[in-house]
Amino acid sequence: MLKYVIYKLSLINAAFAFKSVYYGQLLSVYIRNLRPLSPGSFLDSLRTTRRIFRVRKYTAILPLRLSNLHRLCREIDISAVPGDVVECGVYNGGSASILASVCTRSPLERDIWLFDSFEGLPEPGTEDGIKSQGWKGWCHGDLEKVKTVFQKLHIPESRVRIVKGWFQDTFPSVQIPDIALLHIDADWYESVKLCLEKFYDSVRPGGFVIIDDYGHWEGSRKATDEFLEQRGIDIELVGVGYTCRYFQKPLDT
């Protein structure tokens, strides 16, 4: 009985700790998006923060990383980087809807491509390390929830392309000539490697590549580092929190 009570209390403490982190980050997002001397800054920051809060049940990504996706999607508009937005690893559509809320309203008429098996994580490989064992089937996304959150944010269906299936099965038949932003949330070595090999060459100079799990999963980090080394890409990875890393494709490539 005592062990059960201790277990329940630990769950309650964990829940409170998570909520404290979540709402702390949400407040930070609002403050960071405020721009002094900008008349529309208050409402703009409020709208961004509200969007992030509304998708909280559809994503495992915390507010600071969602805000970064929102910001980078705006930056490719400001810099007029041509191309679509691609997300590999969709889960329930929270991060995708944040990206879509910007890119589908872009004057550059971007589409958003979403790739996921909607069957959970595949079996990790030897490159993914001991920590990955037992995670097969986790992060099982629901396509209907993706559609629901897109409706909540009023994302036009005509601009969304959802490709259901395992990457190795779906990638060969897909051609996306120009990509402005590539968001990879694929966890394992083989999955991240497939995403980079398939889509990196289509990312336009000035576009962004985001690896969400770089700092958390050994395989994700290894696949990214190996790819950059093999391509001779010497570039600083920018961190967002302990796990996310991103970089901008050099303009001279």
CATH topology of the largest domain: Rossmann fold
Helix % is 40-55%
Strands ordered across the widest β-sheet: 3-2-1-4-5-7-6
Run of helices and strands: HHHEHEHEHEHEHEE
Mean pLDDT across all amino acids: 88
Could you tell me the radius of gyration in angstroms?
Answer: 18 Å
CATH level 1 class label of the largest domain: Alpha Beta
Principal-axes shape call? globular
- Number of alpha- plus pi-helical segments: 8
Give the termini separation.
64 Å
How much of the residues is beta strand, in percent?
15-25%
CATH architecture of the largest domain: 3-Layer(aba) Sandwich
Count of the separate structural domains: 2
Largest sheet: 7 strands, mixed
Number of strands: 7
Q: What are the low-pLDDT stretches, counting only 5+ consecutive residues below 50?
A: 2-18
Helix/strand class: alpha/beta
CATH superfamily of the largest domain: Vaccinia Virus protein VP39
Structure description:
The chain is of the alpha/beta class. 43% of the residues lie in helices and 15% in strands. The chain has 2 domains: 1-54; 58-248, 3-Layer(aba) Sandwich (Rossmann fold). Strands 3-2-1-4-5-7-6 form a 7-stranded mixed beta sheet, with helices on both faces. The longest helix has 32 residues, at 2-33. The radius of gyration is 18 Å and the shape is globular.
